[in-house]
# Entry
Amino acid sequence: MANKQVHRVSPELTDDAQFKAVEHIPTTMLKDGDTILVYPGEYSDPRTANVANVTIEGFGGNKDVVFNGFSIPSDGPGGANVEIRNVTIRAAGLIVGNTASTVKVVDCIIDGTSGNARAAALALANGAVTSGVLASNAGVAATDAASVVVLEHCTLGSNIGPGYGVVAHNNSGSYTTSLYSCL
# Structure
């Protein structure tokens, strides 16, 4: 069995970081079960296949590592498990594409009131957490994948109007929440 790896990310390549952003890590370098340790700073949305079957963990408090949106794309591998820990996700929030993946979010702040919201011309409203979304930011039309989103010990912010806390555009997905609060 291969050893699990820890890949370090820092915007200034401090703290022995190897990469400036999650999306800069070559997909071929990541193995199932690896951890991406993200040092304090502000990051763009890591819309990439790199987040499949890994844990993304913020270093420090959950207000120290800020993502301006966080997307799990529809073209990610089916059956993927993604865990996001100890970060803040600002607008456009956590977006889980039309993918049969499980996304577990622990000790995070998901605040759709700060950062850049999705453009008003898009079909979908701004939600702190949105699932069943195609790459075009349109809701699923025909068949959908059964994504599972688990929120544990998370704080959900109010959202840019019109906005919602949790929005599911797929009819076969599910949400589970445990001890979350609202801003």
